[in-house]
Request: fold
Amino acid sequence: MWEKALPIAELSQQGSRCWSHVKGRIGIFRTELGLHALSNTCPHYEAELHAGEIRNNQVLCPWHRWRFDLKTGHCATGPHFDIKVYPIKEEEGYIWIDVAAGSKVPRDPSTTPGGETDNQGLGTCL
Reply:
C-alpha cells in the first residue's frame, strides 16, 4: 500500500531525508538517477544512512563508511548485511513509498558484492 512520505518540495534537489514510519525508519534519497528508498539503519552499528555521503549511486554509512547500493540495498561488505529497498514514486506533489512491498533484492551469484567508489561523489546528504 502506497503511503504519503513527504512533500516533493522537501527533497526537490539532490540529497536525503529520513521518514519515520510505524514499521521503522526509511531513508529517502534523490540523486541524478532519481528517487530511492531503503532502510535507514546501517546493520553494523545502526547509524542513520540518510546522513551519509552519496557516491556512484551508493550511500556510505556516516560512521564506518560501509557502502549500500541505493537501487538494490546490497552492501559492499557482504550479502548478509544487505538492507531492504522500497518502491518509491512522485505523485500529486508528494513522495510516496510502498512500505508493504519493502524487501531485500536477491543478488546475482555471478557478480561480486558492492562496487568501487571514486572521489567524485554527489556530495554530502543534508
The longest strand covers residues 24-31. Residues 22 and 123 are 30 Å apart (CA to CA). The chain has one domain: 2-101.
